[in-house]
TrEMBL record:
GO molecular function, one term: rRNA pseudouridine synthase activity
Similarity comment: Belongs to the pseudouridine synthase RsuA family.
Name of the featured protein: Pseudouridine synthase
First-tier enzyme category under EC: isomerase
Matching CDD domains: PseudoU_synth_RsuA_like, S4
Species whose genome carries this gene: Enterococcus sulfureus ATCC 49903
EC number assigned by the record: 5.4.99.-
Superkingdom: Bacteria
Length: 238
């Protein structure tokens, strides 16, 4: 038996906190009966519905999306800003982003309605690698970035070791293009790590997630993952 808010969260409908609000608002039913008690538990035999739609009726779907800058990695936004699911208006399933990219960060983002899949990829213990390319202020040198390979502490947060590659430098403009590979997913992690070595980020893009790359996708475009790709990224998690 599981608490119904946990079941809703695992299905990818909403976070557990938002699922609790759905219950309090009378938008959740168990076997056709609306419930408002947060402690209610259900078994696998029970039918849980949100807004009249049974959770179990949805087939799992998996998408790769090229998130543009200036878009929120969420399904709703209190400030009415554009969110990633605005690009999926023709998708009937209730999908949500796997992890997040900052508002001003572009690149590869996965969306699904499979809670177990999302949990597997975002939990730190599974160590799925993510590759970012950043334009930074300053002429980057290997000795500047070397501390990141040992792990670093910045603003009270400890970050695990990362790999780097300096792709190019512009001595006249005093900027560099740096590639950073990490396996954690902490808030603003890449920006903070590069700030810690005095290379503030001016522009940031995630180019790879596990074995997946953007390929020919353009900003704002998406495509479904193949079964082979789904298996490959799951296998890349430890």
């Amino acid at each position: 038996m599981e608490r119904v808010q946990k079941v809703i969260a695992q299905a990818g409908i909403a976070s557990r906190r938002k699922a609790e609000q759905l219950i309090l608002d009378g938008r959740v039913a168990i076997n056709g009966q609306v419930i408002r008690e947060l402690g209610t538990k259900v078994s696998k035999k029970d039918e849980v519905a949100v807004d009249g739609v049974p959770i179990s009726s949805e087939q799992y779907v998996y998408f790769m999306f090229y998130k543009p800058r200036g878009v929120i990695s969420a399904v709703t936004d209190d400030k009415k800003r554009k969110v990633v699911t605005d690009y999926f208006s023709d998708v009937s399933e209730r999908i949500y982003p796997v992890g997040r990219l900052d508002y001003d960060t572009s690149g590869l983002l996965l969306l699904t309605n499979d809670g177990d899949f999302a949990q597997r990829l975002t939990h730190p213990k599974h160590e799925v690698e993510k590759k970012y390319v950043a334009k930074v202020k300053g002429v980057a040198l290997p000795q500047d970035l070397k501390p990141l390979t040992r792990g670093i502490r910045y603003k009270g947060e400890k970050y695990a070791p990362a790999r780097f590659d300096i792709l190019s430098t512009d001595h006249q403009a005093k900027t560099s293009i740096v590639q950073l590979t990490i396996h954690e997913g902490k808030n603003h992690q890449v920006k903070h790590m590069l700030e810690a070595v005095k290379l503030p980020v001016q522009k940031l893009k995630r180019e790879q997630y596990g074995p997946l790359t953007l390929g020919n996708l353009r900003p704002g475009e998406f495509r479904e993952l193949s079964k082979k790709e789904i298996n490959a990224i799951l296998e890349s998690s430890k």
